[in-house]
Structure formats: C-alpha cells, structure tokens
Amino acid sequence: MAIPNEFQQESEHAVVTRCEIDSKSGFKSHDLYVLNERSYSNQFAPMYFNRLQVLRPRVSHSATKKWANESINGTKVVKRDKVLDVKPSEPSWVIGTVYMEMKYKPNILEEVSKNNVNVDVSGIESYVDQDLDEIYLEDESGRILLDGDIFKSTVLCTGVVVGVLGMETKPGCFTVVDIVYPLMSAQKPTRASQGKVAICSGLQFTGIWDAKHALLQDYLTGELGHDSSQLTRLIIAGNSVRVQEQDQVQQRNKYGAKNKSNFSQQSISQLDSFIHALLPSIPVDLMPGESDPAEISLPQQPLHRALFHKSQSYLKSNNFNTLTNPQWFQFNELRVLGTSGENVNDVYKYVVPDSLQVSRLPIVEASLHWQNIVPTAPDTLACYPFERDPFTMTETPHVYFIGNQPRFETKLLSLERGQVRIICVPDFNKSGQLVVLDTDTLDANVVTISS
Amino acid sequence: MGLLDKSTELLKESLIKGNKPFTYKLLSRELNIHTSDAKALLYSFYLKFKDEVEPTYLLLGQLQDSDDLLSIKLTKNLGDQDEFEKLASIEVYALAPKNLTIDEIVQSNVSEVERFPLTQDGFKQWGVIRGPEFIEVETIHTETTHPIRQEVRKPINKTKEETSNSKASKFDTGLASARILEKYKTKEKPIKKDQPSISTTFTSKTTSSSNTMKPGVTRRSKTEPVNGGPAELIEDEDLNDEEFIKKQELEKQEKDRKRKELESMFDDDDGFEVYERKGEVQPDKPQPVTASKHADLEGIFDSSFSASQSQSQSQSQQGNSSVKSSPAKTNERKEVSKEVSKEASDSVTSYYDEDGYLVTKVEAKQKSAPNPKPRARTATSSLESKSPAKKAKSGTKQSTLMSFFGKKK
C-alpha cells in the first residue's frame, strides 16, 4: 500500500504555463443567436414556414436520390408537392413538418382557450402515451395522419422536417414505409487543431462549497499536483447555479414584492468566486442553462456581466466569455457546436422512455439527421419569435456537445458529408465528471472527481 | 526557524488548540509555499500527532475497469487506493479534528483561502498554472464584496501591499472617487453656493493621496464613513508587521488630521457662509422677503380681515403700507432708519454696522435709539406679528369662519 511522502526540504518548483489555443467564440453565434433588438410582436408561425422552406429542397434532394426508382407493389412512386395532394392508394412521397399530437404534451392553444397562459413543461417527464399519440405531417396546405411500424423505431418530434414515402390507405391516413431526412449541411473541410478543451456542465452552485467543486477548481489550476496545463480552456455548459426553491410566483400577484427571486445571491457569487479563481490560470467560456439567471427562451442570451463582480475585469479579453446558448466555438480550425441540453432533454420527452434506455445519444444523432438542433421550439420549448429559424443547421460542426445529460456518452458519428463527434456532457453535480476533448484526435474522455 | 517547525507550530495552533481543520491549500497560502510541499508537511505533522488529528487523503490515478482519463478521489480511508488500477499520487489533502466530514473541512477553509489573493508570485510559489492573462484586481473585489471586512484586511496588509500594482490603485481611485462624489453630493444639497469648489478640492486631495498612499490604506479612507469607526480596526489587526504598523499609524494620523481639517472646513463653511451672507445680504434682501411674505398673506386672506387688523394696529398699518411699496422704497426707508439711528446715538451705531446686522440690530435699537424704535418695530413686528396673527386666527378661526358663513347666508 502506498503512503504519502513526508516532508524533507522545501523544493524548487518551476512555473508551469498553460497551453494556449486559438479560440474564437461567438463568431457565428453572434449572427445566429445574439438578440440585439427584440420584438415580441412577431408570430411563431414564420419559424415553421422558414424551417420548411429551408429544409424542403434538402429533403427533396435526399428523397430523389433515395426513391427516384422506388416502386411499391409494382407502381412507381410519385412526388406530391403538398400534403393534401396525396391521393388514395397511390404510392407517393411528400415533404412536411412533423407534428406530434400527444396526450400529455401541453398545448398552448388549449391552454389559452382555457385562459391559462402559464404553460409549465418543466414538471412533465414524458409527453408520451403510446396508445393515443398521433403523428401528423403538415405543410402550408394542411395535415395528414401518419401511420406505420417504422415510427416505433424512429425518433421523431414536433417540428422536424422529413420526407415520407407511403400510401394513403385509409382516408386521411398515410401509411409510411420509409423516411428521409434533409441533406446534411456542409462541414468545414479542415479541422486542424491542437490542445485539449475541458467541458463541464451542471455545476449547480448553491452558495455552499463542497469537496467536489473545490477539487475541480484545484485540478484546473494545477494545485492538486496533477499537471492540467494541457487543458487550454474550460467551457461551462449551463446550469451553473441551482434554483433554490421551487416556483414562488403567485398567480394573482405576479410582480408584487412577495414574489422573491428563486435565485440565491450566494450561489451566483460562489460561481463568480469559482470562475475568478480559475481565470488567472485557465480561460473560461460560460454558457447559460435552464437553471441560470438568464431568460428561459432560447437562444438564451449571455449571463449579464453584472453578475460577475469579481471576474468581470477579464470580460474585456477573450479569456472570459459569457456566451449564448446554443453557441458555436472555433478552436484553431475546429468548429464546435454546443448547447446546455434543454433541446435534447425536451426531445427526450417525445420518445418512449424505455425504448432508448435513458441513452441520449440516439436523440443527439437524430437531431443531426434532422438538421435542426432545437426542433421542439417554439412548441414545447420557449423560444424568441424569430422570422427565420436559427436552429436549422446550415453548417455541420466537427464536434457537437450537449450539456446537463444524465451520463457521459460519446460517439463519432459518420455522416454522408463528414464525421461528427457527439458528446453528452454529464451533470457535474451528480457525476463529478469533467469532459476533456482532444481537439486534434476528437477523443473525449472524462476526469472523475469523487469524495 | 525551519519550514517544518513553522508549519508544525501553525498546525498545532490551529488543529490542536483551535480545533479547526487545515487543508494543504491554506497551509500553502499561510506559509507561502508550494502546494506539494504543503501536502508533505501535513503528512509529516500527521505522523507526529496521529492520535489527535484525522487525515483526508487525495488519491489520483486510474480506477479499475474504467476508461476515465483521471480519477480524483478524496477519502479518509487509505484502503480506497485498492480501487485504483494505477495510482499516480497519494497525498494528504487536509488534516482535521476527528468526525468532520470532507465537505465540512472544505467549507471551513474556502473563505480562509480566499483571504490570500493570487499574485504574480503565486504562480511559482503556490504551484498555480499560469494562464494567458492575469489581472491583479482581486483585493478590491474581495474587499468590496466580502461580508467580513476584518478577515479580508489581514492578507492585504501582510502580503499584497508591496506587490499590489498600479492597476489596482487606478481601479480603486476610480471606484472610490465616484463613491465619494456621490456621498458628498448628498451632503452638498443643503448648502447653497460655494460648496462644489470645496468638494472638488476634497476629492482632489483624496485622489492625490490615493496615488501616493498604499492601496489598502487609501481604500479604507475612501470607503470609510466620516465618523472614522473602521479606521480603528487597522490598529487592532496589523500586529504582525511593526514597520508597517508605524507607517500606517503615521498615515492614519495624517489622514485623521486631514479629515478633521476637512470636517472643520465643512463646519466652518456652513456657519461662515450663512453669517457672511446674512451680513452682506440681509440688510438688502430679507426685508423684501418679509414684504413679499406679507404680500402673499394679503393676497390669501380676506381684505376685510386684514383691514380689521390694520384698524386695530396703526403701526402695523404703516408697516403694511411700506410693505406694499417696492423694494427700492424699503431700501430708502432703511437708509433713513440708519440716518435716524446715527442721529440718535452716534457712538453706538458705528460698530453695529460692521458686525452681523440682523442679530445685533434689535439690541441696538432697544438700547440706543428711541426715535428709530417705531420703524424698527414695524420691520420686526411685521415679522413677529405674523405668529400672533396666526395664533389669533387659529384662536378665532371658528368664529370668523362662522361669521364668514353667516355673511353668506
């Protein structure tokens, strides 16, 4: 059994300097996700139209490629432009947006008609009821009910643009035999980069220090005795502070003095202290998350600088960035897309819980196939009323990470136009895990801290 | 004294006498040594006092059947190292009195460690990896945000003082001067005219002093309220460094002196200004003011009411008539009164003109001049008569009101 070393004499130590990486954050997100002027007079419908408009040609491309010479029961399939053009007993394919009619899914129209505008989806774990749920395909013309065994093995959710191949067997019901997704958007051809990047999420500071957070800080600054100087940056992907108490807002008196904020000042100043202790040693990129003091609607805007009393002097340089969620990063030539996990957690509510054994990888994989990272906004996820849809991918990243997932999972996904490293970053508070991404090899590993 | 003895003494003091846990990080900060030395020192101490303290071990390595890059484990049980396939290092993380949980140990030490802000030397001394950018503004932030002021002061005075750079002080002055300005703006409000110039001299004084003085001290002086309460804290705290204490005391004394000067300036100015103004302006202006007041009263109240008053007092009528006349007229009247008083008592009036006019005037007239009396009375009695009039009004209000209503009926 090994034992610690005794003190002999004070030894001479050299200064360890951290490796650096050329980092550009916000280069793309600035156009996509930063909201400069906000107008809430817009309707949400244009987002869906825009999404369909952008993705329809790409789905059409994939469908033509796949089904050009397809025939069902000896009849050649035809393309129908609109959902309502589908004719009975004619093998055809059509493109539209999926809409899931689910028993437990909150329906804003119903709620509004009942004069209850406060739709809270946070408490619902799953929208699914297998017997009653219906899948529709809709476009500008109307909607049609989809049916078929293929849906049992396919991850779908509201807002996804797909092409379906099949036949109208019963009136108003289209039996699907195959599905195509949009053509994958281009990926930056070069991804040359060196250095490692640390990603963590779900720090969930409460205002009271515990051993895990202190060890994480010491590990990153190198004081634990393990050389972590090869970690060039730390990305904190959301949920950095914990909401102390559940909703205190009274319905009647929404803006009264009795309604305290759920955020505790201590937790935020603890986050500030934590970041402040790291900054002289390692640059930090901070994304907001579901439980952070940022707006709920996506894209979440950067946490306000006033929250970082101690660390804000670093905000002037690139060494401390408060970023949007989602966010595009660039490390040297490598392009990384990250979210704090609400998107995947929400899609997870659309799938039958048992079918995927809690793994979130198939959902993340699917969202790359869908070419949309937040398809369920604005239906079940709050979202700014955009005129265009910023969540539709126009570029495929080299690395796509999702914060606040139940466990660490990673996969190198090979797509038709390149490879994407998917990383599910676990909740640090529960798992004590920090993900280390090698920007050269795209390997992702974890450092586990336990006490 | 060797490092080992120093640390043993410190740990004895804290762990065995004070019953407080001690992490490697705090030891490294307290003794300004490398964290790996601090861990070794903790273990050496543990070997000496095995019965009294309980160690928390830090295990680094790779767990069995795990793909993790690294596993970091804090444990009180050395046997946990069997879980590791490869053990990269084993060190003592903390020593603590028995039956304390690891989280409790960490919690108790975090705030202590925060008292030692990182400096340029810290990278080498404590073994912190040097990042691409280092801004040394910690002291200000910790001071302004930290709830316990005394705790924060200590390290600043002990370690940071000499090394803290110009950035800090620059930042500091900016913050503090704004604060001071605000503080004194609120003070200025009641004082009417010449105050801004005084406040600017005050701020310029403080800013110049902040440039010359040491940051910790200047900060104190700026954030401190005028009553000087916290200033006494310095003496109590800084018992370690004698030279520094001397310097600080000198500076403190100087500052106290300056503050007193300032305060006295403010006090003097308040008094002086008022007196001056009274001396200068009073003879010309206040009378028109009373006149205007009176005019207002006339406008507000019923003419019959004032007429009844005027009937009862012929002198006040004179006053009223003079009041109705323009300010120029009142000036003339005053000159006349002066002449009259000169005529009546030449020896007395000569020195009353020089001093505050309003205060001494009444006495002068009471003492000296029988002739100016009625006029002087008109001036003062018009002022004084207001309150009796009001009293009379309040006393007779009911009846007059009733009569008013009665008339209407």
Automatic annotation (TrEMBL), chain A:
Compartments, record wording: Nucleus
Domain DNA polymerase alpha/delta/epsilon subunit B: 197-409
Enzyme class: transferase
GO MF, one annotated term: DNA binding
Pfam family for this entry, one: DNA_pol_E_B
Domain DNA polymerase delta subunit OB-fold residues, every copy: 43-179
Catalytic activity: DNA(n) + a 2'-deoxyribonucleoside 5'-triphosphate = DNA(n+1) + diphosphate
InterPro entries for the chain: DNA_pol_a/d/e_bsu, DNA_pol_D_N, DNA_pol_delta/II_ssu
GO cellular component, one term: delta DNA polymerase complex
Keywords per UniProt: DNA replication, DNA-directed DNA polymerase, Nucleotidyltransferase, Nucleus, Transferase
One GO term (biological process): DNA repair
Domain of life: Eukaryota
Known EC number: 2.7.7.7
PANTHER family the UniProt entry points to: DNA POLYMERASE DELTA SUBUNIT 2
Membership in a protein family: Belongs to the DNA polymerase delta/II small subunit family.
Protein name: DNA-directed DNA polymerase
Protein's organism: Cyberlindnera jadinii (strain ATCC 18201 / CBS 1600 / BCRC 20928 / JCM 3617 / NBRC 0987 / NRRL Y-1542)
TrEMBL record, chain B:
Protein name: DNA polymerase delta subunit 3
Localization (cell): Nucleus
Positions of region (Disordered): 146-171, 186-349, 362-409
GO molecular function: DNA-directed DNA polymerase activity
Comp. bias regions, Basic and acidic residues: 146-164, 186-195, 243-263, 274-283, 330-345
Acidic residues composition-biased segments: 233-242, 264-273
Biased composition (Low complexity): 197-212, 303-326
Lineage: Eukaryota, Fungi, Dikarya, Ascomycota, Saccharomycotina
Assigned keywords, A-Z: DNA replication, Nucleus
Pfam families hit by this protein: CDC27
Domain of life per record: Eukaryota
Species of origin: Cyberlindnera jadinii (strain ATCC 18201 / CBS 1600 / BCRC 20928 / JCM 3617 / NBRC 0987 / NRRL Y-1542)
GO aspect biological process, one term: DNA strand elongation involved in DNA replication
An annotated GO cellular component: delta DNA polymerase complex
PANTHER family: DNA POLYMERASE DELTA SUBUNIT 3
